[in-house]
Design brief:
Layout lengths: L2 H10 L1 H4 L4 E13 L4 E4 L4 E9 L1 E5 L2 E5 L4 E4 L5 E4 L5 E12 L13 E3 L1 H18 L8 H21 L24 H9 L7 H8 L3 H12 L3 H19 L4 H7 L5 H12 L8
Antiparallel strand pairs: 1-8, 2-7, 3-6, 3-8, 4-5, 4-7, 6-9
Organism: Cohnella zeiphila
Keywords: Cytoplasm, DNA-binding, Transcription, Transcription regulation
GO molecular function: DNA-binding transcription factor activity; sequence-specific DNA binding
Amino acid sequence: MSQSEGKRMTDIGIFNELSEYIAIRINSCREESHDGDWIEHKAHNDYDLWFVQAGTVRIQIGGIEHTANPGDVVFFYPQVPYMAASPGEGCRFIYVHFDYGIGGQQRILGDFPLSGIVAHERIREEAELFRGTFIRSTQPGGVPGSRLYLKAGLTAVMARIIELHGLGRYTGAFVSGRNPRKSEGSLDVLQPIFKYVHDHLHRSMKMSELAALAGISEKYFISYFKKALGITPGQYIYQVKMNRARDYLYEKKHTVQQIAGYLGYPDPFTFSKAFKKYYNVPPSKFV
């Protein structure tokens, strides 16, 4: 694995570590058909996915033209102007407008080059799953649980896009050379903290040492961290520790006392209390 591939996997791994904090909200979802003279100039206020069902869609962003074919999935970031058209036979696609955030940060995806056209052969299974959940959600009278299925389908699509990028098999072409979230605080500044936390779970960590790693004053560090990631440094450390505790318990070869030491807790009682607060059961009864 190259250094750049390793960094990409580390960066995108934040979605695994903080999966419990991820919230997806579907704002609207419909199927649209357009004839051959359709042209659209727009910039959306939220994230937007198009699942191309028929015809060809040409999209121009920043003076560069991109083409989406049937089966492809088009991913737009908020506030990015585009022009879309469907020359010739027209087109048909399912669109979904949605919010995707970690904690209080609703633009977390802006730190990653995911916006673009995902080729159908890379996302076929997830796109078909979403199409099925969309059809279910449009049944007359409403099928019980249909909106949950729709949300689950969208979650699977986003997980696949994130996975493809993490594996180096997809990089969105719509945001090349730009960072839509630069003014809000970039995760790049926090990467040394993420690594440091992972390497030092066995001991307590002070905000002053984490702030120094980021090159930020201690006074500003917590607010910067929360603005960039959507949660506080303390919440992040706690989440990572609970993830590791779960993994250690699944292995069934570590005592509660050992795990407490691995994760920097002074004694098994303190660890068990923190664990139960998170999982609602003590570590001795978790597996």
